[in-house]
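PROTEIN DATA CARD
Card holder: Epsilon-sarcoglycan isoform X6
Chain length: 429
Origin: Danio rerio
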Amino acid sequence: MALPDVFVGLIVVVTILSKSHADRNVYPSAGVLFVHVLEREYFKGEFPPYPKAGDTSNDPITFNTNLRGFPDRPGWLRYIQRTSHSDGVLYGSPTADHVGKPTIIEITAYNKRTFETARHNLVINIMSTEEFPLPYQAEFYIKNMNVEEMLASEVLGDFLGAVKNVWQPERLNAINITSALDRGGRVPLPINDLKEGVYVMVGADVQFSSCLREVETPQNQLRCSQEMEPVISCDKKFRAQFNIDWCKISLVDITKVVPVHSNRPDPGTGVLPDIGEYNPPSESLKSRDYFADFLITLAVPSAVATVLFIILGYSMCCRREGVIQLVHHSSIQKSTKELRGMSKNREISWPLSTLPVFHPVSGEVVPPIHPDNYETTSMPLMQTQTNLQNQIQIPQQQTSGDNYCMSTFRRLEVNGIPEERKVAEALNL
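Structure generated from the sequence above:
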């Protein structure tokens, strides 16, 4: 049977870092999925154990992977580690352009308990084979899987076995695996055990089966446009473990793909030329003198400001128009200060009443009294004569009868002694 060949191919492409401290060499093939597991158990031996004997070490370890001499990995190589207590995975599909170029990946492990690091190198030697890439390639979208779950050898083997049953090729291999998040998918909500989804591309050496072609029928295309699930006869062979979105399946025959012309048009002005990969500068950089930059950025603006200040001072102090303006401004300030001083020193006596006071004895009209010992700010503008302290009420006799009315007059004082006689005379009237 051809099914065991699938698992043999998986054993070839899946590698696990050995416990040798030397650089690890792997030999993936171009056009075949490459999976490399970074085991935490291996790196635990690089860090000191727990202080108490018998304790099980479960250190939180994270990994950082980059191409030696560069801050990131090659474009075809991806890395994922879900948590600090799970293993890391390097995966990707090298192309024929990388054949014969050894790729050295620096793997740095960080222990979050001890804050120590350990570093190892992984040398990837990409091989070229005549069998790959296979001409017929199909990409499936699996909705109920995460990328790290699909990278496990047993899960990927089960999926390739199901594809082999519905396709029946002589040779079948996984070409690439991509997370749905890398294709613009959204992060799922942490409810109902939702998955982010994963795209799996497989290649075979025979034409696509009739089951895979069913998605191209007009009926299924109409159902997909209405966001309904298409009717696929072989879906039950996947449904037990893999929930496939058949509307997103992609079938490509690379023998019929028109190659893109390699000659590029003239980019024109303003476009940088293609100079290949970026080469960082050497460690020995030339020293630079910043004295000229200091003169340009600080000394020159200061000199310009000084010249402008001198011109303004000459215009205001040495010319006739400027002197006149200064004298005029000084006189205005002096006048304003003098007016403010006069307004503070002036005393305004507000009248207690605006009406004259009638003297009941002499019959004279006395003008309103203006005492000097009252606060002008708290005194109202108008006051009735009944509020005066030196006023009394006396009854007045009416000519028409024996009724009396009250009259108001000011009690007179001579040397501080009231004239009681005048008051008695007034009462006898």
